[in-house]
Amino acid sequence: MGVILIKETTSSICGENHLSSSIISSSSNATPIHLVSPSHLDALKLELGGRVSAWLETKNFTAKGRQCELICDADGKLERVIFGLGKDELERLPMLHASLAQQLPAGDYQLEGEILNAKLAAIAWGLGSYQFNRYKKMRDDLPKLVLPEGLDIAEIEREIKATALVRDLINTPTNDMGPEQLEAAFIGLAEAGGAVYNVIKGDDLLSKNFPMIHAVGRASADAPRLLELNWGDENHPKLTLVGKGVCFDTGGLNIKTGNFMTLMKKDMGGAAHVMGLAQMIMDAKMPVSLQVLVPAVENAISSNAFRPGDVLQSRKGISVEISNTDAEGRLVLGDALAYGDERNPDMMIDFATLTGAARVALGPDISPFFTNDETLVADVMAASMSEHDPIWQMPLWAPYHKYLKSKVADINHAGATGFAGAVTAALFLDKFVENANSYMHLDVYGWQPDNKPWCSIGGEAFGIRAVFAMLQHRYG
Ligand code: BES
Ligand code: MN
Ligand code: ZN
User: Fold this and answer.
1) Which tens digit of pLDDT belongs to each residue from 108-136?
2) Would the CB of 355 count as within 6 Å of ligand 1?
3) What confidence tens digit (pLDDT) does each residue in 235-291 have?
4) How many of the other CB atoms lie within 10 Å of CB of 386?
5) What residues pair up with 459 in beta bridges, in sequence order?
6) Which pTM value belongs to this model?
7) Residue 424 in contact with residue 441, Cβ under 8 Å?
8) What is the DSSP letter of 351?
9) Given 3-state DSSP classes, what are the helix, strand and coil percentages for the chain, each rounded to the nearest 5?
10) Which atom of ligand 1 is nearest the CA belonging to 328?
11) Strand partners, 109
């Protein structure tokens, strides 16, 4: 990706060089890729003639999903590619076109034949071209796709680049992506988009009344901070995005055991998601008044770390009993949400790698979202389906507030029973939101644990393309 994340060089935010070149607007010698389903295979064989047809039979090509054959001309030069679309719904996912970007040799290509969803095919190609090459040399001769007709290259690249930004931020390990570097990346994003920004850091968090952000982050040598950017016309509808920016989650004094800590560089995944989404919103010049908030901290262990049993004050004035220092995300988010809520936003959305329970409930492909706004549910579900960016509603089940009761404080931050862990976490967050017209929380995994055509194992964005489409529908 060659992404630029450090402060001095943030004029281009993310992977521009590498990614903008995986999709090109035209080419004088593009190799055709024939997309074909099993039912159209015979017709294609007739059209392409005996030599190609015989080769496809030799290779037992049946056009099952992602089957790919390279056809050479008499000189041994690549003449065309035949790509199977499969016959059932699972095989025909447009995102599977990403496997082309991974399988093909260098060169320019264009799609022909049964193009089922050109926009998603192009996006998938771009997503499949992603490589995290900050520390290791990777393939520098990736194939390029000529943009299918009728598509807007800016729109396609916006989605590809935002996803790449999310992946880069998550993949970068904490020694290069602590609060300091996350701040630099955030400022780079703000500057590139023409936003104004502000950072509240260290003890200033106490004087400016963000006690929970300070408490969670104070044990780290890299000071806690609240990052804020504001962009757009103040008269437009107010949209506030909040992202969990826990750059590393040791669990704190309730230290994570075994391999539960291994992936915790990804615990700033929520911050990465809102930064990717903000990049899309600013690039598209969406008519909103955008505020982005990222509490950036490291949940570290030291003699001054916050402890189980501590009672924290919060910005909102709610006292919070700590039962487990590993439930840190909801604390930093609570103060950030309370602050965002103070400007009475029309909509407030947070993304957070908040609970292991969300991962247990829905697995790594699909993120739960929670909202009190029923009209939003229909909108965002429709967008999730059309963008092939799956998210699914889970309930803000009010009776489970009982699991957050505390004998010594207004509220306990984590349920003692473990029942409905993702729901009780969402209910906790909801306590800090009062004025926002509409509020949505997404509990994202932030990581792709299996190799998929559109994403190899590593950091991954969930729901930002769906949420962007929903926002464009509302405000765009
Ligand atoms: N960052 C974790 C949640 C997490 C873990 C997300 C693994 C994705 C994969 C969060 O800070 C956490 O540790 N949550 C605890 C909460 C519990 C102590 C109430 C959890 O989910 O176990
Ligand atoms: Mn934790
Ligand atoms: Zn965490």
Assistant:
1) 999 999 999 999 999 999 999 999 999 99
2) yes
3) 999 999 999 999 999 999 999 999 999 999 999 999 999 999 999 999 999 999 999
4) 15
5) 447
6) 0.95
7) no
8) E
9) 40, 20, 40
10) 11
11) 31, 145
